[in-house]
Amino acid sequence: MKNFIYGLSQYYQKLGKTLQHADGIAALALRLYLVPIFWMAGTNKLMHFNDIVEWFGNSDGGLGLPFPYLMTLLATTTELAGAILLTFGLFTRLISIPLIITMLVAIFTIHLPNGWQAIADPNAPFANMQVLASAEKLEKARQILQTYGNYDWLTSNGSFVILNNGIEFATTYLVMLLALLVLGGGRYFSLDYWIKKKLSN
């Protein structure tokens, strides 16, 4: 038994040394997953800049944030710059910090009152009262669509759902950014790696 454990430990260490040359793939995957998310968020804010400023600053039906123009400018710039820098793996750790702040602001000012779920699912373990109440709305909407609409066509690409807009997606992106803060751009697949390699030589 002792020899088996020792052999397993040796194999595990050897596997770790072999895989360390591919550790940049994890950072690359995280970066490329986040790029379109931040690019779409940033370009949407840019195209509707004045509307976002109004929403950020409006305390009646909006977020009621201070300095709404500055906040919109910072959020838009951060998301667009983040998408570009993450694409190339340039200043990955540095850009992760304002992106993390952006996600925290989104979580606490927009999504937190809605609970965890992004899509309302009354059968999920984290269903709050808002999500549980959505079951009746969802059933009523299905009945209307089945009666007055082409329900099969409307649901041909997926089931009809109710958006809950909870913290689920924003928290997922936050966790991914925290990982990038630790990992950096990644070995071989980022400009960060090659710049550091060049400077060290």
UniProtKB/TrEMBL annotation:
This is DoxX family protein. Its main location: membrane. Pfam families: DoxX (PF07681). InterPro entries: DoxX, DoxX-like_oxidoreductase. The lineage of its organism: Bacteria, Pseudomonadati, Pseudomonadota, Gammaproteobacteria, Moraxellales. Belongs to the DoxX family. PANTHER family: DOXX FAMILY PROTEIN, OXIDOREDUCTASE CATD-RELATED. The chain crosses the membrane at residues 21-41, 67-87, 94-112, 170-189. The keyword Transmembrane helix applies. The keyword Transmembrane helix applies. It is found in: Cell membrane. It is a multi-pass membrane protein. Keywords: Cell membrane, Membrane, Transmembrane, Transmembrane helix. It comes from the Bacteria.
